[in-house]
Amino acid sequence: MAVLKVVDRDGIEHEVEAQPGLKVMEVLRELEYGVAAICGGMCSCATCHVYVDPEWAGKLPAPMSDEKDLLSELTHFEGRSRLSCQMDFTPALDGLKVTIAPDE
Predict the structure, then answer these.
(1) If exposure means fewest CB atoms within 10 Å of the residue's CB, which of 77, 85, 101, 102 is most exposed?
(2) CATH number of the domain to which 46 belongs
(3) Structural domain boundaries, residue 51
């Protein structure tokens, strides 16, 4: 297993085991302090909104247009915002650090 570093909404960092091949959202929704992921990964609700640590931002594929459109409508949008349902967790992302965004 690989590691995903997650900063929850209280600012507490957690290291969790993450299985490569899953979406980052699939790991986060299983956590007590994770994301709601209401739409189940369909890129339609933004309840899996996270901020990617600047160190990792350049290591991820660029967001597709539907993800960009949804993110741009969010109150808490930042340049490092991503929808975790659109992020594949690969072995190269071992150690990826994300922060759970505030609820909209």
Answers:
(1) 102
(2) 3.10.20.30
(3) 2-100
Could you write out the DSSP letters of every residue in 36-91?
A: --TTSSSSSS-TTEEEE-HHHHTTSPPPPHHHHHHHHT-TT--TTEEEGGG-B--G
Q: Which residue is listed with tokens 């992302």?
A: 93
Report how far residue 50's alpha carbon sits from residue 7's, in angstroms, rounded to the nearest whole number. 10
Angle subtended at Cα 79 by Cα 68 and Cα 94, rounded to the nearest 5 degrees: 90
Give the up-direction half-sphere exposure of residue 64: CA atoms within 13 A in the CB hemisphere. 7
Domain count, the chain: 1
Is residue 1 over pLDDT 90?
A: no
Give the mean pLDDT of 64-80: 96
> What does the pLDDT look like over 3-48, one tens digit per residue?
999 999 999 999 999 999 999 999 999 998 889 999 999 999 999 9
